[in-house]
Amino acid sequence: MTEDQTARRKAGILGGLRRSFLTGLVVVLPITLTIYLIWTVIGWIDGWVLPFVPSAYHPNELLRHYFGEDWTYNVRGLGVIVFLVFTVLVGWLAKGLFGRSILRWAEGLVDRMPVVRSIYNGLKQIAETVFSQSSNNFDRACVVQFPRPGVYAIGFVATKAKGEIAAKVPGGDDLLTVFVPTTPNPTSGFLVFFPASDVIIMDMSVEDAAKLIISAGLVYPNAKDPTVPLLGQ
Fold it and tell me: Are residues 91 and 1 in the same domain?
Protein backbone atom coordinates (compact mmCIF):
# COMPACT_ATOMS: atom_id res chain seq x y z
CA MET A 1 0.00 0.00 0.00
CA THR A 2 1.46 3.35 -1.03
CA GLU A 3 1.75 6.39 1.22
CA ASP A 4 -0.98 8.15 -0.71
CA GLN A 5 -3.38 5.22 -0.21
CA THR A 6 -2.48 5.04 3.49
CA ALA A 7 -3.14 8.77 3.91
CA ARG A 8 -6.49 8.49 2.13
CA ARG A 9 -7.45 5.53 4.29
CA LYS A 10 -6.57 7.39 7.50
CA ALA A 11 -8.50 10.43 6.27
CA GLY A 12 -11.48 8.18 5.52
CA ILE A 13 -11.35 6.62 8.99
CA LEU A 14 -11.05 10.03 10.65
CA GLY A 15 -13.87 11.39 8.51
CA GLY A 16 -16.08 8.47 9.50
CA LEU A 17 -15.28 8.98 13.17
CA ARG A 18 -16.01 12.69 12.83
CA ARG A 19 -19.39 12.04 11.16
CA SER A 20 -20.28 9.46 13.81
CA PHE A 21 -19.32 11.88 16.57
CA LEU A 22 -21.46 14.67 15.09
CA THR A 23 -24.39 12.28 14.62
CA GLY A 24 -24.05 11.11 18.22
CA LEU A 25 -23.83 14.71 19.39
CA VAL A 26 -27.09 15.57 17.62
CA VAL A 27 -28.76 12.66 19.45
CA VAL A 28 -27.13 13.01 22.87
CA LEU A 29 -26.99 16.80 23.30
CA PRO A 30 -30.77 17.55 23.24
CA ILE A 31 -31.49 14.62 25.58
CA THR A 32 -28.73 15.63 28.00
CA LEU A 33 -29.71 19.31 28.05
CA THR A 34 -33.40 18.44 28.51
CA ILE A 35 -32.65 16.16 31.46
CA TYR A 36 -30.31 18.77 32.94
CA LEU A 37 -32.89 21.56 32.65
CA ILE A 38 -35.64 19.39 34.16
CA TRP A 39 -33.34 18.36 37.02
CA THR A 40 -32.31 21.98 37.61
CA VAL A 41 -35.90 23.28 37.62
CA ILE A 42 -36.99 20.53 40.03
CA GLY A 43 -34.10 21.41 42.35
CA TRP A 44 -34.98 25.11 42.14
CA ILE A 45 -38.61 24.44 43.08
CA ASP A 46 -37.53 22.11 45.88
CA GLY A 47 -35.24 24.82 47.22
CA TRP A 48 -38.18 27.22 47.47
CA VAL A 49 -40.84 24.82 48.76
CA LEU A 50 -39.03 22.37 51.06
CA PRO A 51 -38.21 25.00 53.75
CA PHE A 52 -41.98 25.11 54.41
CA VAL A 53 -42.16 21.31 54.84
CA PRO A 54 -41.17 19.86 58.26
CA SER A 55 -37.65 18.44 57.99
CA ALA A 56 -38.81 15.04 59.29
CA TYR A 57 -40.79 14.59 56.05
CA HIS A 58 -37.98 15.49 53.66
CA PRO A 59 -37.13 12.56 51.33
CA ASN A 60 -33.54 12.31 52.51
CA GLU A 61 -34.59 12.21 56.17
CA LEU A 62 -37.18 9.52 55.51
CA LEU A 63 -34.65 7.41 53.58
CA ARG A 64 -32.09 7.81 56.37
CA HIS A 65 -34.74 6.69 58.85
CA TYR A 66 -35.48 3.49 56.92
CA PHE A 67 -32.08 2.72 55.33
CA GLY A 68 -29.61 4.11 57.85
CA GLU A 69 -27.66 7.28 58.45
CA ASP A 70 -25.20 6.51 55.66
CA TRP A 71 -27.79 7.31 53.00
CA THR A 72 -26.57 10.39 51.10
CA TYR A 73 -28.43 10.20 47.77
CA ASN A 74 -29.99 13.50 46.68
CA VAL A 75 -33.69 12.87 46.10
CA ARG A 76 -35.63 15.60 44.32
CA GLY A 77 -39.26 16.12 43.46
CA LEU A 78 -41.12 16.43 46.77
CA GLY A 79 -41.16 20.21 46.46
CA VAL A 80 -42.70 19.94 42.99
CA ILE A 81 -45.43 17.60 44.28
CA VAL A 82 -46.18 19.89 47.24
CA PHE A 83 -46.25 22.91 44.93
CA LEU A 84 -48.66 21.23 42.49
CA VAL A 85 -50.99 20.02 45.24
CA PHE A 86 -50.93 23.43 46.95
CA THR A 87 -51.63 25.28 43.68
CA VAL A 88 -54.53 22.98 42.78
CA LEU A 89 -55.95 23.37 46.30
CA VAL A 90 -55.71 27.18 46.15
CA GLY A 91 -57.36 27.20 42.71
CA TRP A 92 -60.17 24.98 43.95
CA LEU A 93 -60.75 27.20 46.99
CA ALA A 94 -60.58 30.40 44.91
CA LYS A 95 -63.50 29.18 42.77
CA GLY A 96 -65.78 28.86 45.80
CA LEU A 97 -67.72 31.60 47.57
CA PHE A 98 -65.54 31.46 50.68
CA GLY A 99 -62.32 31.54 48.66
CA ARG A 100 -63.50 34.47 46.53
CA SER A 101 -64.40 36.39 49.68
CA ILE A 102 -60.95 35.86 51.17
CA LEU A 103 -59.33 36.79 47.85
CA ARG A 104 -61.30 40.03 47.62
CA TRP A 105 -60.37 40.89 51.20
CA ALA A 106 -56.68 40.20 50.54
CA GLU A 107 -56.69 42.22 47.32
CA GLY A 108 -58.39 45.09 49.13
CA LEU A 109 -55.60 44.97 51.70
CA VAL A 110 -52.96 44.99 48.94
CA ASP A 111 -54.66 47.96 47.23
CA ARG A 112 -53.88 50.06 50.31
CA MET A 113 -50.12 49.50 49.85
CA PRO A 114 -48.79 51.92 47.19
CA VAL A 115 -45.70 50.05 45.92
CA VAL A 116 -46.97 46.54 46.58
CA ARG A 117 -50.24 47.39 44.81
CA SER A 118 -48.47 48.30 41.55
CA ILE A 119 -46.30 45.17 41.58
CA TYR A 120 -49.18 42.84 42.45
CA ASN A 121 -51.62 44.26 39.89
CA GLY A 122 -48.99 44.13 37.15
CA LEU A 123 -48.04 40.53 37.90
CA LYS A 124 -51.69 39.52 38.22
CA GLN A 125 -52.55 41.01 34.83
CA ILE A 126 -49.60 39.23 33.20
CA ALA A 127 -50.55 35.90 34.80
CA GLU A 128 -54.20 36.25 33.78
CA THR A 129 -53.16 37.05 30.21
CA VAL A 130 -50.60 34.26 29.88
CA PHE A 131 -52.62 31.52 31.59
CA SER A 132 -56.07 32.51 30.35
CA GLN A 133 -57.82 29.38 29.08
CA SER A 134 -60.11 31.28 26.72
CA SER A 135 -57.67 33.63 24.98
CA ASN A 136 -55.62 32.99 21.87
CA ASN A 137 -52.46 34.84 22.85
CA PHE A 138 -49.34 34.16 20.77
CA ASP A 139 -51.22 31.60 18.69
CA ARG A 140 -49.91 32.87 15.34
CA ALA A 141 -46.44 33.33 13.95
CA CYS A 142 -45.89 36.19 11.55
CA VAL A 143 -43.29 38.10 9.56
CA VAL A 144 -43.03 41.89 9.85
CA GLN A 145 -40.70 44.53 8.47
CA PHE A 146 -38.50 45.27 11.46
CA PRO A 147 -36.39 47.23 12.45
CA ARG A 148 -36.80 49.09 9.14
CA PRO A 149 -38.69 48.64 5.86
CA GLY A 150 -37.09 46.00 3.68
CA VAL A 151 -35.75 43.97 6.63
CA TYR A 152 -37.96 41.15 7.86
CA ALA A 153 -38.20 39.55 11.30
CA ILE A 154 -40.28 36.74 12.77
CA GLY A 155 -42.79 37.75 15.41
CA PHE A 156 -45.74 36.43 17.37
CA VAL A 157 -49.17 38.05 17.19
CA ALA A 158 -50.43 38.75 20.70
CA THR A 159 -53.73 40.61 20.41
CA LYS A 160 -55.34 43.54 18.69
CA ALA A 161 -54.29 46.89 20.13
CA LYS A 162 -56.50 47.96 23.02
CA GLY A 163 -57.05 50.79 25.45
CA GLU A 164 -55.16 54.05 25.02
CA ILE A 165 -53.01 52.67 22.19
CA ALA A 166 -56.07 51.90 20.08
CA ALA A 167 -57.73 55.19 21.03
CA LYS A 168 -54.87 57.63 20.40
CA VAL A 169 -52.74 56.03 17.68
CA PRO A 170 -54.01 56.79 14.15
CA GLY A 171 -55.68 53.68 12.81
CA GLY A 172 -55.43 52.10 16.24
CA ASP A 173 -58.46 49.87 15.66
CA ASP A 174 -56.49 48.12 12.92
CA LEU A 175 -53.27 47.68 14.89
CA LEU A 176 -51.93 44.28 15.94
CA THR A 177 -49.68 43.82 18.94
CA VAL A 178 -46.65 41.84 17.79
CA PHE A 179 -43.84 40.51 19.96
CA VAL A 180 -40.56 40.35 18.00
CA PRO A 181 -38.15 38.06 19.93
CA THR A 182 -34.37 38.14 19.84
CA THR A 183 -32.03 35.33 18.80
CA PRO A 184 -31.08 32.93 20.36
CA ASN A 185 -32.94 33.99 23.52
CA PRO A 186 -36.63 34.41 22.59
CA THR A 187 -37.62 35.50 26.11
CA SER A 188 -36.36 39.02 25.34
CA GLY A 189 -37.48 41.15 22.43
CA PHE A 190 -39.55 44.11 21.30
CA LEU A 191 -43.23 44.94 21.62
CA VAL A 192 -44.27 46.59 18.35
CA PHE A 193 -47.65 47.72 17.00
CA PHE A 194 -48.21 47.11 13.28
CA PRO A 195 -51.16 47.77 11.00
CA ALA A 196 -52.83 44.45 10.23
CA SER A 197 -52.08 44.92 6.53
CA ASP A 198 -48.32 44.99 7.29
CA VAL A 199 -48.36 41.70 9.22
CA ILE A 200 -47.74 38.57 7.15
CA ILE A 201 -49.35 35.62 8.95
CA MET A 202 -47.34 32.40 8.51
CA ASP A 203 -48.60 28.84 8.18
CA MET A 204 -45.87 27.52 10.50
CA SER A 205 -46.80 26.88 14.11
CA VAL A 206 -45.57 29.01 17.00
CA GLU A 207 -43.36 26.08 18.09
CA ASP A 208 -41.71 25.86 14.65
CA ALA A 209 -41.16 29.61 14.57
CA ALA A 210 -39.55 29.43 18.03
CA LYS A 211 -37.21 26.66 16.82
CA LEU A 212 -36.21 28.83 13.88
CA ILE A 213 -35.43 31.75 16.18
CA ILE A 214 -33.54 29.74 18.81
CA SER A 215 -31.43 27.99 16.16
CA ALA A 216 -30.53 31.35 14.54
CA GLY A 217 -32.07 30.23 11.26
CA LEU A 218 -30.47 26.78 11.13
CA VAL A 219 -33.61 24.72 11.81
CA TYR A 220 -36.41 25.36 9.34
CA PRO A 221 -39.85 23.81 9.88
CA ASN A 222 -41.07 21.11 7.56
CA ALA A 223 -43.70 22.01 5.03
CA LYS A 224 -47.24 20.98 5.92
CA ASP A 225 -47.31 18.94 2.70
CA PRO A 226 -44.22 16.66 2.79
CA THR A 227 -44.39 16.34 -1.02
CA VAL A 228 -43.72 20.07 -1.42
CA PRO A 229 -40.04 20.85 -0.77
CA LEU A 230 -39.04 23.96 1.16
CA LEU A 231 -37.17 26.72 -0.63
CA GLY A 232 -33.44 26.13 -0.50
CA GLN A 233 -33.71 22.35 -0.36
Answer: yes
The predicted-structure confidence for 38-86, as pLDDT tens digits, reads as follows 888 888 888 888 888 887 777 777 777 777 777 666 677 878 888 888 8
**Residues 150-170: tens digit of each pLDDT:** 999 999 998 888 888 888 888
- Which amino acid is it at 30? P
**Is there a domain that residue 115 lies in?**
no
> How far apart, in whole angstroms, are the C-alpha atoms of residue 141 and residue 109?
41
Residue 106, domain member (yes or no): no
Judge whether 126 lies within some domain: no
Q: Is residue 160 part of a domain?
A: yes
Q: How many residues does the chain have?
A: 233
Domain residues for the domain of 46 are 1-95
Tell me how far apart the alpha carbons of residues 112 and 101 are, in angstroms, rounded to a whole number. Answer: 17
Amino acid at 153: A
On the question of a cis peptide bond just before residue 54, with omega within 30 degrees of 0, the verdict is no
Instruction: Report the DSSP pairing between strands 189-195 and 175-181.
Output: antiparallel
The domain tally of the chain equals: 2
